[in-house]
Each structure stands twice: as C-alpha cells, then as structure tokens.
Amino acid sequence: NAVVELTGVHKAYDLGEGRRVVALRGVDLTVGEGEFVAVTGPSGSGKSTLLAIAGLLTRPSAGEVRVDGQRVDELDDDARASLRNHAFGYLFPFAALWPSLTALENVLLPRVLAGTRTTDDATRALALLEEVGVAHLADRLPHQMSAGEQRRVALARALANRPRVLMADEPTANLDTDTAERVIERLARLPEEGTAVVAVTHDPHLAARADRVVRMVAGCVEAEG
Ligand code: ADP
Ligand code: ADP
C-alpha cells in the first residue's frame, strides 16, 4: 500500500524575466506504508524539491501526487495544510524550535495545531523526549540547549502526531557522532511503528538502514537499490 505516490512529477522554479530552473524532470516515486526510503544524489539534483513536493510543502508544475491513493496536488491550501498537520512530520537540518516555548511545549505544539490534543499528551511528549535522551531538558527553552539537543527535540516534535510519513532533510547533518547515531536509531524504529520515512541524506550510516536508496541525478531518479 502506497502512502505517498508521485507520478511524472516535474517542477520548474520561475526566476522572473522568463527564466526558469527545472528541478525535477518526470519523477516517479512510491513510498510504501512503513517504508524507509533514503534519497541521495549530488547537490542541485532535486532532492529537497522532491521532499518538499512529496511532503505537500510545494506543488508540482506537472504530474500527480497521491497520499493514501487520493490526489492531493490539486487540493486547496487549507486541505493541504490540514494533511500536513495530520499525516506528515518534518525534520529539517536545523531545529526550527519555537524560541519562546520550552522543549516540552514545542513537542506539544503539533497536537495543538492539529486540534488533536488529549489529556495524556504531556506524558506522551515526555516519552518522545525520553526516546531521544532529552527528557531531562523538558523545561528548557531552545536557547538553553545545545544545537544537538535542539535537533533531538525537533525529532520528538516531528513524531508528536504519529505521522504516516516523516519527511527528513539531512537529519544527521552537523550532528556529533553520538547524536547522529541516536537520530538514526530512532528513525530506523519508525517503520515498525507504522511511520514511513523519506530521508534526504549524504550519510552512509543512515542510508545503510533504509529499505531502499533512491539516487537523484539532474532532476531524475537515476537508480534504486
Ligand atoms: P538538492 O536538494 O539535490 O540540492 P534542490 O531541490 O534544492 O536540489 O534544487 C534543485 C534545483 O532547483 C537546483 O538547480 C536549485 O538551484 C533549484 N532551486 C531549488 N529551490 C529553488 C527556488 N526556490 N528557486 C529557484 N530555484 C530553486
Ligand atoms: P503555506 O504557505 O503553503 O501554508 P507554510 O510556509 O505556512 O506553507 O508552511 C507549510 C507547512 O510546512 C506548515 O504547516 C508546517 O507544518 C510545515 N513547515 C514549514 N516549515 C517548517 C519548519 N521550519 N518547521 C516545521 N514545520 C515546517
């Protein structure tokens, strides 16, 4: 069963004055339920664009995007935002925590935004922090934590809504070896919890844990292995 499916996806960025950059040239990609897909390839090959389109952050210029079999590229902005909040988790190469909220409040935030808060949320948020070894920092503000600690809080936050898919862009970039290993171990356990993972990465340790490696070259999927 495909959770996310891209068919013949093209993406061109408009630079104005009639100039365009073609980032994707007819990409097909299927992400199965609970599948862990690593996306590799040289800089500028379209990896981030692919992740943004599959994660409903950007619309394709042409082609079709499906989530659980339903077309989503033509949905209106509100419907897409609702899907992002309910079905997707996002992890960026920077933590992007809300600066005035504690670690725990940051993890609770997606539940508030999705309107799915329940009374056991705090317990679960703490458990999510615990899994990545930062439960003792629950009351800290982002600026009171190291960059690596913030990134672990961001991973806990990305999982708060039990997403169907986690979209991770370079999730181990600029992390020390121990933190990177912790992040990789957490990501590798997600498929058994029913969360698929799409991770853009240059990290061979991370790619080695994936079910499948998709290599992008010049806006196309070059090979799958
Ligand atoms: P990667 O993640 O593999 O480095 P990207 O998807 O970021 O590749 O970029 C693919 C191509 O699209 C590159 O040529 C890049 O310069 C271009 N591109 C990416 N984002 C934009 C944007 N917002 N506006 C214009 N061009 C962009
Ligand atoms: P749009 O203009 O399409 O509404 P937004 O820029 O408001 O797009 O953000 C789209 C969605 O992407 C947000 O609802 C959020 O879930 C996610 N998102 C974007 N950037 C970030 C980020 N830095 N950290 C976490 N989530 C993000």
UniProtKB/TrEMBL annotation:
Residues 4-225 form the ABC transporter domain. Keywords: ATP-binding, Nucleotide-binding, Transport. The keyword Nucleotide-binding applies. One of its GO terms (cellular component) is plasma membrane. It comes from the Bacteria. The keyword Isomerase does not apply. Pfam families: ABC_tran (PF00005). GO terms for molecular function: ATP binding; ATP hydrolysis activity; transmembrane transporter activity. This is ABC transporter ATP-binding protein.
